[in-house]
Design brief:
Layout lengths: L4 E7 L3 E8 L4 E9 L6 H16 L5 E8 L6 E6 L2 H14 L3 E7 L4 H10 L3 E4 L9 H10 L8 E3 L6 H7 L5 E3 L13 H18 L11 E5 H14 L10 E6 L4 E6 L9 E3 L6 E6 L8 H8 L1 H8 L3 H13 L8 H22 L2 E7 L2 E7 L8 E4 L2 H6 L2 H8 L15 E5 L4 H8 L3 H11 E3 L3 H5 L1
Parallel strand pairs: 1-4, 4-10, 5-6, 5-7, 7-8, 8-9, 11-17, 13-16, 17-18
Antiparallel strand pairs: 1-2, 2-3, 11-12, 12-14, 15-16, 18-19
Helix pairs in contact: 7-14, 8-11, 9-11, 11-13, 14-15
Length: 468
């Protein structure tokens, strides 16, 4: 029996997933899975997952660490409020997504009574109030604090706005659960979301885990450390940057297509490789975007709509009418697993299309503008053209197979010269869906987590060989 093991748990919205890791060898030794039962009794799904793991291992090892993440019960639902959509609202959005949240609402400028009612209807887990640079506009953020004092929901509020207005916000929101963090945009053109992200994570651990019933299984684990998307992001950061003097892969991109959304994470500076002039909001080095209309099941129709039915039909080698029939089949059963060659081809077309659009939206763009000094190239967003490594995680990229098509979908294309997608990336596969577990393990043993990552996340052309 291994006495040096870690149990890494993901309380997901569909499954409770376990990864058991040998800490001495930095090696995955087993996986287990049970249903997600967070809405009834989370212990039921956890016991089923442990039984599954025990059956595969013969006996459960003694675990040194038992760490969990969660996206169950709707994930970490957040509302963000800011002053100007392109500035403090966007800064707040980046902070929330970086904390692993699911954004359910964004509000701009002064809140109205209707906005307050809408926030109550959204029932967020946390509200992030931003607005104004330090020393800048205080009127709007103070007004919004006053309006938030009227909301019926007891969601904790994180204030991350104009530092000058923080005392007024404390006074106006006295009696509510309020955490004051550093301004997410202390000055124009400067992002500072770390303090807000830390505050969100602390609230998640202290309150949200209990509110969603996850701590009912407390005797089965040590801690729930973060939302699962944040764990995936931390795993990606470790794989890129390395730990303890051991280098990582360098700048990389992670694509995570799911049933309802496609997440993209980039660990990259995004600075221009061509000398273009940066415009717009500064971009965080660690960036996550969530495309709520690009999923393999719940939002499959949106993928078809975004790409055009003719294109999907051509890629899947079926008729336009056949695309409609496939979508009807998926709508009737969103847990459908492809069985026939036609269903596999349709899913491959959906997957490549969702990834292409999601990566294109995540990456920056360039355009030529004409100034009094002549033409100039300006860049919006991140330049990802130099990224060499793209990691695909999730079931669809692993099981659907066509890795050349996935790479093609991620690459920059001559037909879209403005896009700053990777030019010549290498595809790596998270074949054991272990990136979240690496992120969790990194919180207690980063060097072992890095060795596990280098061992588990492998080039796509070696995936079959490594799995044997």
């Amino acid at each position: 029996m291994n006495a040096h093991a870690a149990l890494l748990i993901d309380f997901g919205s569909t499954y409770t997933k376990l990864r058991a890791v040998d800490l001495d060898e930095a090696r995955l030794i087993g996986t287990g899975q049970g249903p997600s039962t967070v809405r009834t009794d989370i212990r039921i799904g956890m016991r089923a997952a442990l039984s599954d793991l025990e059956a595969k291992l013969g006996a459960l090892p003694r675990f040194r660490y038992r760490l969990a993440s969660s996206s169950a019960a709707g994930g970490l639902r957040m509302v963000t409020i800011g002053l100007v959509r392109e500035l403090t609202v966007e800064a707040a959005r980046q902070a929330a997504l970086g904390a692993g949240a699911k954004l359910v609402g964004t509000f701009t400028n002064k809140l109205t009574r209707s906005d307050v009612e809408a926030i109550d209807a959204l029932a967020p887990d946390i509200i992030l109030l931003a607005g104004g640079t330090d020393g800048g506009n205080t009127e709007v953020v103070v007004h919004n604090a006053k309006m938030l004092a009227q909301i019926k929901t007891d969601a904790p509020i994180v204030y991350a706005g104009n530092r000058v207005a923080a005392d007024d916000a404390r006074e106006l929101l006295a009696g509510r659960s309020l955490t004051v963090a550093d301004n997410v945009m202390p000055e124009l053109g400067k992002l500072a979301s770390e303090s807000a992200r830390d505050a969100i994570r602390q609230i998640f651990i202290a309150r949200i885990v209990h509110a969603k019933g996850i701590d009912r299984a407390q005797e089965m684990f040590d801690d729930v450390l973060m939302p699962t998307p944040a764990a995936v992001m931390e795993g990606a950061r470790l794989l890129a940057d390395g730990a303890g003097g051991e280098p990582g892969l360098g700048e990389l991109l992670v694509v995570d297509p799911g049933g309802a959304t496609t997440d993209v994470h980039s660990i990259a500076s995004g600075e221009s490789s061509s000398g273009a002039i940066q415009k717009g909001m500064p971009e965080p080095r660690i960036k996550r975007t969530v495309e709520g209309d690009l999923g393999m099941r719940h939002t499959a129709a949106s993928v078809v709509e975004a790409a055009g039915v003719e294109r999907i039909a051509q890629q899947a080698n079926i008729s336009v009418a056949g695309v409609g029939a496939m979508l009807e089949r998926i709508a009737e059963n969103v847990e459908m697993i492809p069985q026939t060659p036609a269903e596999h081809a349709f899913d491959r077309a959906l997957l490549a299309t969702a990834i292409e659009i999601a990566v294109r939206r995540h990456a920056g763009t360039v355009e030529t503008v004409y100034t009094t000094m002549g033409p100039a190239t300006v860049q919006y967003g991140k330049d990802l053209t130099r990224i060499e490594f793209v990691v695909a995680t999730g079931g669809a990229p692993i099981h659907l197979g066509d890795h050349d098509a996935l790479l093609e979908a991620m690459r920059s294309a001559p037909s879209d010269p403005r896009s700053l997608r990777p030019r010549a990336p290498h595809l790596y596969l998270d074949r054991d869906y272990i990136l979240y577990a690496i992120g969790l393990l990194a919180s207690v043993d980063p060097q072992t987590a890095l060795r596990l990552a280098r061992r588990s996340i492998t080039p796509a052309d070696r995936a079959k060989e490594v799995a044997q």
